[in-house]
Amino acid sequence: MKAIVVSAFGGPDVLKYFGNHEMLKVLGDHQIFIKVSHAGVNPVDTYKRAGNYQPSSPKPPYTPGSDGAGLVHLCGPKVTKFKPGDRVYFCDFQTGSYAEYCTVSEDRAYRLHDNLSFEQGAAIGFHTSLPTVLSLLKEKLEKAKRFLFTEPVEGSAWPAARLPSTSASKSLAQLALKKARWNGASEVLNHREDGYMELLKKGQPIDVIIEMLANVNLQKDLDLIAEEGVIVIVGSRDRAEILPRSIMMKESLVTAVSLFRCTHETWKEMGDFFDRGQRDGWVRPVIGKVYKLHEANLAHEEVIKHQAGSQGKILLSIDD
């Protein structure tokens, strides 16, 4: 099968394309074998490839990728949720989605409705921590008057309009992505432009911040957050330098969520959440640049540097 293989840690050039890579032939009882249409490219993929991912990078040789979408090809003997031919999206950390086929646990795959394309399905997977954030912030969001959702360019599957409760009077999205207005944000600000902090500071302080790029924005979040406000970190690329007194003086709370610590029940909750979103039409991932599988090295450069100006989720098309 076609696949990308990392045989040694290093830069994007270690992503090697193979047209006849060996295919896994044995499935576990609760595993499914998926013919992948598109795979999501995430910053974390580049950290693992470089060998500096914490707590640990996979041991080479391995195939990168955690999320994607495609058709169920085979099912393990005890699988009850799917059958061959079902359209699915997934987020799993087993055999890698940068390949023509990959193995996924039954409980890490979810039905992809007909109103979404495989490209859109591949853009959902790594953002499934959204309902965990909602659960964590339920009481705070009900009282929030001003809300900030920060998101780097490569990930735009999160439906911003669904994050605050309907009682929240204003939703701000700190994005370099004008398409976010289509996804529900009432204001769109580009954090790469001068003066955006001054615009955010207008009006009352922000009660809740969902932070996707903490190494860049965390201290700015602490300057913006209201007294007793909450900052939830769901993404970071490196260390963050902050002034702890910024937290102390406002008695704010900084917490975090991680897909790697999710329980079976939490994965099910996340799947149910996005199933409702597909059905009701508010899960509308924005797709950026789509690369061919053999261009995985270019996709890894773009997901970090954005030299091509990608506006949305970066993907690999497996059928190249």
From TrEMBL:
Q: Which Pfam families match?
A: ADH_N, ADH_zinc_N_2
CDD domains given for it? zeta_crystallin
What Gene Ontology molecular-function terms does this entry list?
mRNA 3'-UTR binding; NADPH binding; quinone reductase (NADPH) activity
Query: What InterPro entries does the database record attribute to this sequence?
Result: ADH-like_N (IPR013154), ER (IPR020843), GroES-like_sf (IPR011032), NAD(P)-bd_dom_sf (IPR036291), Zinc-ADH_QOR/CCCR (IPR051603)
Under the heading Gene3D superfamilies, the entry gives:
Medium-chain alcohol dehydrogenases, catalytic domain, NAD(P)-binding Rossmann-like Domain
* Protein name per Swiss-Prot or TrEMBL: Enoyl reductase (ER) domain-containing protein
Q: Which domain of life is it from?
A: Eukaryota
State the organism named in the record: Helobdella robusta
Keywords assigned by UniProt, alphabetized: NADP
